[in-house]
Amino acid sequence: MAELPGPFLCGALLGLLCLSGLAVEVKVPTEPLSTPLGKTAELTCTYSTSVGDSFALEWSFVQPGKPISESHPILYFTNGQLYPTGSKSKRVSLLQNPPTVGVATLKLTDVHPSDTGTYLCQVNNPPDFYTNGLGLINLTVLVPPSNPLCSQSGQTSVGGSTALRCSSSEGAPKPVYNWVRLGSFPTPSPGSMVQDEVSGQLILTNLSLTSSGTYRCVATNQMGSASCELTLSVTEPSEGRVAGALIGVLLVVLLLSVAAFCLIRFHKERGKKPKETYGGSDLREDAMAPGISEHTSMRADSSKGFLERPSSASTVTTTKSKLPMTV
């Protein structure tokens, strides 16, 4: 027996499948869909099959950047009943209900930024076989730019460089940024100004006094625009050095003031201490009595055959007595 060619075999199998039912095929737009914030989005989905008791329709959603396997249902139609589910259940419905005439278009009202993502339209109708039972629609919710935030960093003295930055926290599609200088002052030369419309950064180099002024950043997308302003003040380098020296002098004066305060307080605390008192004094045994001169003592000792000089006529040993004496 001769072998059947491949195409003939496939056609035969397809014919057998067709005898048991019709092919299920889902069609959706190939182009991404975009809807302004707060409006109603219609996600068109059509199918061809023989609708029977086993017919089932499911719409599901997956966030941007995540695989299809992580999608979660938002609406069911099965057994002749419609079942919205999930966080979007109060805002989803079908354009035709019941969806039994080949139209399974989904309506999503009051769209939010979180509605941006991929929507899956899937038809299941056994025993009909499947050629393409799943359709994917990418939806982007259009959001105007929020008011951007302007900031500045870098050296603002003559000859220095500075960076002006601008960013909006919201906006879909992502806004582009453009910096303009306000007033009648001349715009910095192209060689000293580099602008990035994607990041919103403006770099100014080789600053001069004429670079001072007010700069405005405008964030724009197809839904609108928003802006913020920033004032740039360029100073002479000498002014910066004088300001630094002045700050240094003030710090030195402050340190000296603190030291003087501590020293004065120390002396005050020392003056408040009680004076040292002595209880009295006791004369040593070899001390001379008051009124007796050193010369007299020497004469008295000479009669004994030797001359003795006391070590000190005024040396006394102080001890406590009942009569205090203040020194």
Automatic annotation (TrEMBL):
Amino acid composition bias (Low complexity), ranges on this chain: 311-327
SMART domains, sorted: IG, IGc2, IGv
InterPro entries on file: Ig-like_dom, Ig-like_dom_sf, Ig-like_fold, Ig_sub, Ig_sub2, Ig_V-set, VSIG2
Subcellular location: Membrane
Membrane-spanning segments: 242-264
Alphabetized Pfam families for the sequence: Ig_3, V-set
Region of interest (Disordered), residue spans: 273-327
Lineage: superkingdom: Eukaryota
Sorted UniProt keywords: Disulfide bond, Glycoprotein, Immunoglobulin domain, Membrane, Repeat, Signal, Transmembrane, Transmembrane helix
UniProt protein name: V-set and immunoglobulin domain-containing protein 2
Native species: Macaca nemestrina (Pig-tailed macaque)
